[in-house]
Amino acid sequence: MPEHELWLTALFNDYLAGLGTAVLTAVHRPVPDPAHPWSNWMVMELFVVFLLMVTVAILRSGLSVEKPGTLQHLFESIWDFVRTTAADVGVHHPEKYEAFFGTLFIFILAMNLIGLIPTLESPTMSPYVAPGLAICTFIYYNVMGVKEMGLGKYLAHFAGPIWWIAWLMIPVEIISHMARLVSLSFRLYGNMLAGEQVTSVFIRLTYIIIPVIFMALHVFVAFLQAYIFMLLAMIYVSFATAHDSVESHSA
């Protein structure tokens, strides 16, 4: 049994161990303990997905043009914020990509904040979740770049604006794109892990005032990291879908 197994993870391991082992085996991931295949980060990520699905179901059932509720106002504000930010970053036709940006922001924010609930923890503290989100973002902006410009023009970005230095620019661009994966992963994972650890330590050492301060700081960091991740995703999409390769590289 894991040393710090959450109660929710314990329930999954007690009642869904077979399913967890089957899924991990199907994706060729080793299962050291078939009786306890579920890790905290897996369960918490699924729990966040479940909570978001319930929230969306409640939101959809109460949608109204004449009398929008508080939840509808909240999500409309988030959507306006996402679209405005994408336009400010320079994403052409941001409405094409706002579903991905908005989902990314809300999902990361929910995962960052779930750790504030006693007996739960943020899955973004895990070294697996942040790289997974980074890989999804990496695949998304490259696919959108190819879809927007065509394979030939998109690959021409890697060669740079001057054809005779393509031999130098291509490896530089490949390294630059790989560095984006590392940057997205470690920024989110490192900041959330540090914030969670600091908050936990001070909650154990003190009673009311100091924990409240650090919990407020944790909320701020949670919002900031979700925003930065979304913002970087927008920047990468704007570069990938820019039709002028010279402007894209100079940016």
Describe the structure.
The structure is a single chain. By secondary structure, this protein is mainly α. It has one domain (39-250). The chain is 74% helix and 0% strand. It has ten helices and no strands. The longest helix is centred in the last third of the chain and has 40 residues, at 166-205. The radius of gyration is 21 Å and the shape is globular. It starts with 6 loop residues before the first helix and ends with a helix.
Cα Rg: 21 Å
Oligomer class: single chain
Q: Quick check: average pLDDT?
A: 86
Sheet-strand content, in percent, reads under 5%
Indicate the structural class.
mainly alpha
Tally of separate domains: 1
Counting DSSP H or I runs of 4 or more residues, the number of helices is 10
Strand segment tally: 0
Succession of helices and strands: HHHHHHHHHH
Flag low-confidence runs: 245-251
* Helical fraction: over 70%
Main sheet makeup: none
First-residue to last-residue Cα separation: 50 Å
Topology, element by element:
Layout: H1 7-15, H2 17-26, H3 40-61, H4 70-89, H5 98-113, H6 129-149, H7 151-159, H8 166-205, H9 209-240, H10 245-250
Helix pairs in contact: 4-5, 5-9, 6-7, 6-8, 6-9, 8-9
Features:
single chain, mainly alpha, 10 helices
